[in-house]
Specification:
By secondary structure, the protein is of the alpha/beta class. It folds into two domains: 172 residues, Rossmann fold; 66 residues, no CATH class. Helices cover 35% and strands 28% of the residues. The chain has ten helices and ten strands. The strands form two sheets. It has a six-stranded mixed beta sheet with strand order 6-7-8-3-9-10, with helices on both faces. The chain has a four-stranded antiparallel beta sheet with strand order 2-1-4-5, covered by helices on one side. Helix 3 packs parallel to helix 6. The chain is globular, with a radius of gyration of 18 Å. The two termini are 29 Å apart.
Length: 248
């Protein structure tokens, strides 16, 4: 499998804390890779390091063969975004004082005005997240938590991206919204969009994941097929401390 993203021996320090301890990870093109692990394993730090928000102190991060992270890389976070990587942080990162419309326009690199947005793609997004259409002209800060999460995901997919990094998108969402989110990501998967997804929702992980990487203590300790992990209760218990079947 061709890897669109590769991390080799990545270490990340945040202040005095050594968070990542030599992460090795390959994300195959056109597939959904689940990044799983207990709380504090280093999953969010891995995504933020890929995005250049935290600097890798050792090792390398390569996207489409080009170095974007590591001591010798000069790419900034805007450079990484322009290269085709979109990031949906756990905190959502929306602009609360701007309207839904303005948030979407900021995320669309090819559009300066609403008329320049890809209308077919926008309608496709509204099909999964109808609240965004309803509250198009509302300040984003007045949306509910679930609606803000919809907006965070919608901004990342307003234009086709080469790679999506998504951190815990279903956290705190109502089941109906989670189902819409799963359907949206499943459609992106059918279109062969490459996704690296951190997610604690077992149903979502099993439904969407092609590959899986499990982290513990700042390292990737297991890689393989998501279906194989889902079928091996003993491995789940050892790696994650839970049974996916029991949480389905």
């Amino acid at each position: 499998m061709t890897a669109v993203l590769e991390l080799q021996g990545v270490h990340t320090h945040i202040g005095a804390y050594h968070i990542l301890h030599g992460v090795d990870l390959a994300v195959p093109a056109g597939e959904v890779t689940m990044l799983l692990g207990r709380n504090g394993a280093g999953k969010t730090t891995t995504l933020r390091t890929i995005m250049g928000l935290w600097a890798a102190s050792a090792g390398s991060v390569r996207f489409r063969g080009q170095a974007i992270g590591g001591p010798d890389a000069s790419a900034t976070t805007p450079d990484i975004a322009r290269a085709g990587i979109a990031y949906v942080p756990e905190s959502m990162g929306i602009f609360s004082d701007l309207t839904v419309r303005e948030n979407m326009l900021l995320a669309a690199r090819a559009a300066r005005r609403e008329e320049q947005l890809d209308r077919a793609r926008l309608d496709w997004i509204f099909g999964f997240f109808p609240a965004l259409h309803k509250f198009w002209l509302y300040p984003a800060g007045k949306l509910s938590g679930g609606q803000k999460q919809m907006l965070a995901v919608a901004r990342a997919i307003i234009e086709p991206r080469a790679l999506l990094l998504i951190d815990e998108p279903s956290k705190g969402l109502a089941p109906a919204i989670v189902q819409n989110l799963v359907q949206c990501l499943a459609e992106l998967k059918r279109e062969r969009t490459t996704i690296l997804l951190v997610e604690q929702n077992v149903m979502m992980a099993r439904a969407l994941g092609d590959q899986v990487a499990v982290m513990d203590d700042g390292r990737v300790v297991h890689t393989g097929g998501m279906a194989e992990l889902a079928a091996d209760a003993e491995l789940q218990q050892r790696l994650l401390g839970l049974s996916l079947g029991a949480h389905a």
